[in-house]
Write a structure and sequence with these properties.
The protein is an alpha+beta fold and 177 residues long. 59% of the residues lie in helices and 16% in strands. Strands 2-3-1-4-5 form a five-stranded antiparallel sheet. The radius of gyration is 28 Å and the shape is elongated.
C-alpha cells in the first residue's frame, strides 16, 4: 500500500479515535460477510460504527489520538466499534450479538475516554441500565429528601386545616378553610 494511502488511513483513524469517547476492540475471525453486515446494521441503530482496521495503522492512530492503551488489544484480526453517545448501548449490542449468534466474535477490550477496559469490565458495563434510566434514578434519589421535608412541614398545616373544618362543621357553619 502506498505511503500516502497509509497516511490518509491513519488520519481517518486518528479522527475517529479522538472524536469517539468509547471504543471496543473485537476479534471478528470466523464472521461471514452477511453476519458482519447484520452486526453493522445493529450497531448503526445505537449510533455506533464498526470498522475493520490494520493493526499497525491503528497503533499509530491510537498514539496520535492520545489513546495508547488501545495498542495492547491490536493483535490478530481486529475490528473497532466506535461510539460517541451511550457506552452501555454499544457494549450491550456487542455482547448480545456475540451471545445470541454463537459466532467467533469476541471482545478483547476497550477504551472509555482514556481508561483501558478489560473484557469483563465491558460485560459489566453491558449490564448497566441506559443513561436516561440512571439519570431518572439519580433524580429520584435527589428529590426524595425534598418531598419528605415538604410533607413533614406541611403536615401541621393540613392537621390545623382539618381541625378548623371539623369545628366549623360542629358549630353548624359552612367549612371554607
Amino acid at each position: 500500500m502506498p505511503t500516502e494511502k497509509k497516511a490518509e488511513i491513519i488520519e481517518q483513524l486518528t479522527e475517529l479515535l479522538s472524536r469517539n469517547k468509547f471504543i471496543i476492540a473485537t476479534e471478528y475471525r470466523g464472521l461471514s460477510v452477511s453476519e458482519m453486515s447484520r452486526l453493522r446494521r445493529q450497531l448503526r441503530e445505537v449510533n455506533s460504527e464498526f470498522h475493520v482496521v490494520k493493526n499497525t495503522l491503528a497503533k499509530f492512530a491510537a498514539e496520535k489520538a492520545g489513546k495508547p492503551g488501545l495498542s495492547q488489544y491490536l493483535q490478530g484480526p481486529i475490528a473497532l466499534a466506535f461510539c460517541q453517545g451511550d457506552a452501555t448501548q454499544l457494549s450491550k449490542t456487542l455482547t448480545n450479538y456475540a451471545r445470541a449468534s454463537k459466532t467467533a466474535l469476541s471482545i478483547k477490550g476497550g477504551i472509555l475516554e482514556v481508561r483501558v477496559l478489560s473484557p469483563q469490565e465491558i460485560f459489566i458495563l453491558a449490564t448497566l441500565p441506559p443513561i436516561d434510566v440512571m439519570r431518572a434514578r439519580l433524580l429520584g434519589v435527589l428529590q426524595g429528601p425534598i418531598y419528605s421535608l415538604h410533607n413533614v412541614l406541611s403536615a401541621n398545616l393540613r392537621a390545623l386545616s382539618a381541625l378548623l373544618n371539623a369545628r366549623i362543621q360542629q358549630m353548624g357553619g359552612m367549612a371554607n378553610v
